[in-house]
Amino acid sequence: MPDWLYHLPVVWMGLVVCAGTALVVAVVYGAAIALAARGRAPMLKAISPVMLTPLAVLFGLIVAFICSQVWSDAQRASSAVAREASALHTVALLAGNFPGETAARARALVRRHIEDAVNQEWPAMARQEANLGMVTAEASEALELALSVRPQNDVQALAQREMLSALQSANDARRERIVISRSSIDWVKWAVVYLLAVLILVTIAFVHIDNGGTAAIALTLFGLGVAACVVLIASHNRPFTGEISVGPELLLQVMPQ
Q: 39-45 — which CB contacts under 8 Å span 24+ positions?
C-alpha cells in the first residue's frame, strides 16, 4: 500500500481504491471473455461454484484478523494519549502545592512538553518517523524539578511522590504512543488479501463465463465489497495518520495557561 494513500481524506482514498479495484475487475472480465471467445468456455465453466466457498471463508477470516489488529492499535493509541493527558494534568494540579516559582516552572514545563508533542511529535508520528530517541528536554527537567523540591510539610511530601508517579506515567504513555505510531499492516498481509480477492474474482468469472452480463454484475458486486474492506482497513491502519486518526486534542485540553 503506497504511503501517500494513507494521508488522503477517506473520500479520496475510497475513490482511488475503487478505481484500482475496477481496473482489476475489468482485466479479469476481459481475460474471461477472451478465453470464452477462443472456445475455452466449456472447460472453465466446469469449475464448480463450490470453489468460491473456501476462498470466501479464507478472505473473510484474513480481513477479520487484520481489522482486529487495526482496531486494537487504534484503541491502544487513544488510551495512551488519554493516560498521558491525565498524567500531565495531574502534574499541573499538584504543582499548586509548591511555592510560586516552583509551581510556575512545573506548569511551564508541562506546557512546553505538550507544545513539542503537538508541533513536532505528531507530524513525525503521522509520517511514521517518530522514535524513542526523541526524548524531550522538558521531561528530564520536570523530573529533576520534582526531585529537587524539598517538602516543607506532609502535604508537599505527598504531592512530590504523586508528581513523580504522574511524570513516570506520562513518559510511559508517550513512549507507548510512539511505538504504536510505527505499527502498520505489513506488505505480506496486504499481498494475501489481494491474492485471495483476485482468486475469487477469477473463479466468479469462470463460473459465469457463458453469460457476460451475469459475470459483469457478480464481479462488480464483489469488487465493491473488496474495495470497501480495503478502505476500512487502510483508513484505520495507522492510528496517527490520515483523516481518521488519534489527535492531540486531549493534550491541548489540559495545557496549563
A: 41/209, 41/210, 44/206, 44/209, 45/206, 45/207, 45/209, 45/210
